[in-house]
Amino acid sequence: MNFLRAKKSINYGIYTILYRIRNWSFRRIPAFMVTKHKSLGNSLEIGITTYIDRYDKFFKPLYQQIKRLFPEVRIRITVNGFYDEFEQREYLKRIQDELCSSLGENITFVLHDKPKGLTRLWNEILSQNTTDYTLILNDDLEIFPWFRRWLEVSCWKSSHITLLEGTWSHFLISRRSVEDIGWFDEEFQGFGFEDMDYTARCLASEVSLSNIRCPYVQHRDHKPMRTSFDEKSSIIWEKYSRINRDHFFKKWKVCSYNNGIFIKQIGKYVESTGYVGKVTTPEQLSFNRGVCYPDRLEHSIGK
Predict the structure, then answer these.
(1) Has residue 254 got a pLDDT over 70?
(2) Domain spans of the chain?
(3) Which of 9, 74, 193, 195 has a CB 3.0–4.6 Å from the CB of 244, allowing a cystine?
(4) Rounded to whole angstroms, how far apart are CA atoms 78 and 292?
């Protein structure tokens, strides 16, 4: 018995080493060597959420990489607002001048003047989707070129929602999941708990949610000094996390193992209180491509 255990342990150790060597090699393949084997434009769209303090170091490199790797895929960028009106106007002008002056047919920018909750930005991405799946990315990610090939051959279509490396910083969501359980709840107006809410709703509705390993997306886990809502990050994070936490526990209550849904982030089982929140169809933005300013009277600037 001890011999068999040792053999399994050795085999697993060898497998792990080989897996890491393989991924290390593939992560170093340059973009020009990753040719397109299969078109993704009819099955997938890509959305990225971002804000002012991640523009140069994080968002721009990510955006350029996504454009190079997925030229046939529709890309939608939702840019959050900021508490300082003057600074936000200058930031949006930079985006307009540097990135939006020559947009392709497949790219849209949604530019907010005022801060919004993350669920609002996610819904704006999903509300314009015309394909079966959407890949939603946070802005502090590093994408390796082999990610293109991984999407072409991996089994992410087997679930309604697929978390890459177990995080809602980068996930795939199907149009059917939105049809079955509704939109992200826009009453989550701050930070956090919106992912736990959607997890609970998925599991309560028997909508499949899976986690898959993907070594070609690396979360850089940037901790900003400021948020969209204020410059005092530590204070504001607590305030707006509390707002979302209170809303979560308005919808879900802690319960026993037999009756509940396990939420890993809080380590507890929960069940619905019956309160739904705002999960109806979000306001449809009147744009197909180009640049849109939802917070302004002039809703969109077409190409």
Answers:
(1) yes
(2) 38-301
(3) 193
(4) 9
Measure the CA dihedral 59/228/277/122, to 10°: -10
CA nearest 108: which of 287, 285, 290, 284?
A: 290
Q: Order of strands across the sheet with 300-301? A: 209-212, 161-164, 167-174, 133-137, 44-50, 74-79, 107-111, 290-292, 300-301
Tokens of 287: 């744009």
Lowest mean pLDDT among 84-88, 109-113, 153-157: 153-157
Tell me the HSE value of 255 on the side-chain side, using a 13 A CA sphere.
14
Cβ neighbours of residue 148 under 8 Å, at least 6 residues apart? 34, 36, 69, 70
Q: Are 117 and 189 in contact (CB under 8 A)?
A: yes
- What are 141-158's pLDDT values in tens digits? 999 998 999 999 877 888
CA-to-CA dists, residue 283 to 12, 79, 99, 133, 149, angstroms? 51, 17, 26, 20, 35
Q: What is the DSSP letter of 170?
A: E
Distance CA 175, CA 281 (A): 13
Q: What is the arithmetic mean of pLDDT over 249-255?
A: 95
What CATH number belongs to 38-301? Answer: 3.90.550.10
Average pLDDT over the chain reads 83
CA angle 72, 135, 280 (to 5 degrees): 120
In 3-state terms, the chain is what percent helix, strand and coil (to 5)? 40, 20, 40
Cα–Cα distance, 44 to 132 (Å, whole number): 7
CA angle 94, 99, 105 (to 5 degrees): 145
Out of 160-174, 219-233, 255-269, pick the least confident: 219-233
Task: Grade residue 257 by pLDDT with cuts at 50, 70 and 90.
Answer: confident
Short-list 127, 200, 119, 148, CA closest to 32:
148
Of the listed ranges 48-57, 105-114, 217-226, 232-241, the least confidently predicted one is: 232-241
Which residue shows structure tokens 């204020």? 230
CB 131 within 8 A of CB 76: no
